[in-house]
Amino acid sequence: MNEIAQTTEQTQVTEPKIETPSTARSIHFDIFTLFPEMFTGPLSESIIRRARERSLLSVALHNIRDYTTDRHHVCDDTPYGGGGGMVMKPDPIFRAVETALTRPAGWTLAPEDAYVNLPPWDAETPAPLPADTPIILMTPQGRRLTQSVVAELSQYRRLALICGRYEGVDERVRTQLVTDEISLGDYVLSGGELAAMVIIDAVTRLIPGALGYELSAHQDSHAPGLDGLLEGPQYTRPYAFRGEVAPDVLLSGHHANVERWRREQALLRTLARRPRLLDRINLSQKDQAFLRQHGWSPRGE
Ligand code: SAM
């Protein structure tokens, strides 16, 4: 190992600001799904598990089927007008959401009360739902999930996510119950559960105290600390690997040079992979001059 490589420890010059749980706020998710077991793994590992243990995050899983009262607990039916597939019926979804959201965060139906001992609910009269809790339908027709949408969602204390299945949900869920619709992207999943897990994961990273190293979320790709750029390359030990060495500037201990190099690499990576992102970013004169040297010109020029 050369001399520069041995100075790696000295390059950790930024003091991270770590918020303790006592100063942090918490977020509660109410998830409405036909497959609550799907959430078990993602909620019990790594950052999400730790955030739950520190009471920064809580998740209540509501099985929509528990809110059916017919003998076969039917949650779907054939579409009016014919066609293939099944559509999720509105009443179990309305009943589940209106029952849970008119109760304190953390409330769930006791398993023995499913189907048989449901709290009273009026199918004809809308329940007074809390105005500060978005009710979000997972759907490929919704607005696209981006880091700024994640940041927006992270400002709420409580959020409800409805996971569709089959061919989707009855339109009355969309028109009368939900307040927002979010898509993971222009492709179709079999259900909204994976989309809901992605939202929980991305939002959790932004809860102060949920990550050990607070600056890392701020300086991720698309995050405000990077002005929405993609993050540049990162290296760790060993210094040399299969003939490729880590850039010496990162081992120099010169904080300003490290920062400048990282900024330039983020600019180059964004230019190479997502050049249109640069149109939306407030670039300094220095950034612009650097990008021009690498063949970039502002849109319209
Ligand atoms: N027929 C629906 C349509 O064309 O819009 C798609 C139904 S999809 C097979 C079943 C469920 O998966 C949806 O109700 C939704 O909850 C979820 N889903 C599918 N693709 C999704 C996406 N890109 N983003 C978020 N949720 C999605």
How would you characterize this protein structure?
This protein is 27% helix and 14% strand. The chain has nine helices and nine strands. The chain has a five-stranded parallel sheet with strand order 2-1-6-5-7, with helices on both faces. A hairpin with a 2-residue loop joins strand 8 (240-241) and strand 9. The longest helix has 19 residues, at 255-273. The protein is elongated. 26% of the residues are buried. The protein binds S-adenosylmethionine (SAM).
Give the helix/strand layout.
Blueprint: E1 27-33, H1 40-43, H2 46-53, E2 57-63, E3 76-77, E4 87-88, H3 90-101, E5 135-144, H4 147-153, E6 158-162, H5 171-176, E7 180-183, H6 193-204, H7 214-218, E8 240-241, E9 244-245, H8 255-273, H9 285-293
Parallel strand pairs: 1-2, 1-6, 5-6, 5-7
Antiparallel strand pairs: 3-4, 8-9
Bound molecules: S-adenosylmethionine.
Q: Compute the CA-based radius of gyration.
A: 24 Å
* CATH hierarchy: architecture of the largest domain: 3-Layer(aba) Sandwich
| General form | elongated
Strand order of the largest sheet: 2-1-6-5-7
Give the distinct bound molecules: S-adenosylmethionine
Into which percent range does the helicity of residues fall?
25-40%
Structural class: alpha/beta
Biggest sheet layout: 5 strands, parallel
Order of helices and strands: EHHEEEHEHEHEHHEEHH
CATH overall fold name of the largest domain: Alpha/beta knot
Low-pLDDT regions: 1-23
**Would you count the extended β strands for me?**
9
- First-last Cα distance: 48 Å
Q: Would you tell me the overall average pLDDT?
A: 92
Domain count: the total is: 2
